[in-house]
Amino acid sequence: MNVFRMSIASLLLLASIGSTAAQNFMIEMEQFDQWIFGSSGDEKQTRAMIDARAELEIIRVEQSTPLRESQKEKVMLASRGDVHRFFIKVNRVRAAFRDLQADLNQNNINEAYQLAMPLQQEINKGIFGEKSLTAKTINAILDASQRTELEEGRSRLAKRERLGLAKAWVATLGRSIPMTSEQRTQLLDVVVANVGTSRVEGQYVQYLIGYRLSQVPEDEIEPIFDETQWRLIKKSLQQAKAYKGMLEQQGVLNDE
């Protein structure tokens, strides 16, 4: 819930600023960086997190097909290129923010916030997506046999990940709404069928699952539970609908 509270806090900051008189005020670069890096921390912490994700890309591939050392080196070189390109964009928006900083007021504060949002969305989605140098390099360096193994392995991994995320969501819900083993299994089937295939970094996954399930027709979920349980679950799903704005803002709800 910390991520949701942080997103709301940023919006409340903008709202409170917008409610003041039309006068200049200061937002320090540290605050602007928080808009960019979000829950990842500061620039140093974000770099460390992204470097760890780059190593994870190689691990993900090798879960399906072994890579030669020369192939690993090319992937790591490409990942460094993606990191370099990302922080070039960070420095560009910082420069644009500095141009606004001295004259910030209630009329252009949202312009400053919108400078940061695309970068925070990129962090949340992961900078090594299918359009990245890393992904393109992986596709280029594999031979036909490796590529087949990778595609099959990715399919298996995606299924395991969806199941794991769905189990975690059901377990979390089960701590506040007791269920029988059979009910958990039936709900798990519904969640797995609707969790989607988007690769989203961890801190938003549970919100995304809750929102997706809130879009499922009630007649697919209600028969699983008794009247008391359903009343509580329905309330929880209604609350999850409110995540839509936050998920869209963070760039993790782009396939609706």
From TrEMBL:
Domain of life where this protein originates: Bacteria
Record's keyword annotation contains Signal: yes
Signal peptide stretch: 1-21
UniProt keyword list: Signal
Identification of the protein by name: PpiC domain-containing protein
Provenance organism: Rubripirellula tenax
Upper classification of the organism: Bacteria, Pseudomonadati, Planctomycetota, Planctomycetia, Pirellulales
